[in-house]
């Protein structure tokens, strides 16, 4: 499966200022596959892959030192391979051995010609726990001595890259020219989008679906991933109480978004509790890259964006397939056109949050008086863009109030409608399937 992050890895490889690279990301988003099966095999004559979770012998040796020279001697002897600039060294599951993280400083200082990549899930959580334990400072994270990238679940753009690259280019041209797609292409793109909304962007279930078209088989894998995520929550958490809180938050995200007031209210999860009581749970989920937090901005918008002191926020699951699985909605509602109208709008809202997050756009939403709101608020190119996410078409009831407070800015409506721009109202309409292009445009301006 082709991934867009390969472009960032190629830039890293070619950079004259290259440092050892850490690849962040949640579990099962394809980090190892990207680095080992695509990048290493496509760009290098050879590679050495060390799984620190499974390779007890290597892990036990590395745990005794952070000396890069000793690592090189050991690796060359153990794997009978000479480490050269043409050989990629991969440390996988690096959270299992913090001395390997510390060694990256010395690879950077003394062996910068060697390409080194460390990957793993829950890395930031393991670092935080280790720093908390080691008040004496015996754990040294290589600040300033590493490069890093974050891998997210497969985006809808990447899904199109793998299943219909021709349609992807047609959509791209329509976006650039702000011209409606031919209706046949529009319907085709909407069908593919709803496939994606059902399965999501985790590579394993997505690959199963692409090759078998079996929703059942793909969902069975999603079910196991969901259980694994819940199981991970006993890792690097400080107490059994925090583990329970973390799971409670994670399991309630769909139900909280699907209520009239979509703000996450911990009092609906556990009576008498406030967000302050659940701080560690929110932090764990964000550091693990399995949820995204969207902060509230009220009324008049000031720059730079700052969340309200009231602490209101919304939580989104970081994969659309996991979100759909948690909802327990019948899959037929996604791929039978007549039943799509029964879907809640929060499926599209969570999808937009994932697409924005994959482009590393900070997540904010705006609220005005009474029920006036915009699901997302983005600052780009010196301008503020209020963004409304709708299941179908419809007016933007909150726009008049927003503009009365914040000026006559361009508004963006994301819906099932085709591409369009209304000059009189200054509203740009983007179909659901082109959100990745909107995100790319907002990010790059």
Structure, explained:
This protein is an alpha/beta fold. It is built from 20 helices and 14 strands. The strands form three sheets. The chain has a five-stranded parallel β-sheet with strand order 2-3-4-1-5, with helices on both faces. The chain has a five-stranded mixed β-sheet with strand order 10-11-12-14-13. A four-stranded mixed β-sheet has the order 7-6-8-9. The longest helix is centred in the middle third of the chain and has 18 residues, at 215-232. The mean pLDDT is 94.
Rg, Cα atoms, Å? 23 Å
Q: Walk across the major sheet and give the strand order.
A: 2-3-4-1-5
General shape: globular
Helix content: 40-55%
Q: Tell me the fraction of residues in β-strands, as a range.
A: 15-25%
Number of strands: 14
User: What value does the average pLDDT take?
Assistant: 94
Structural class category: alpha/beta
The main sheet comes to:
5 strands, parallel
Distance between the amino and carboxyl termini: 29 Å
What is the oligomeric state here?
Answer: single chain
- Count helical runs: 20
Low-pLDDT segments, ≥5 res: none
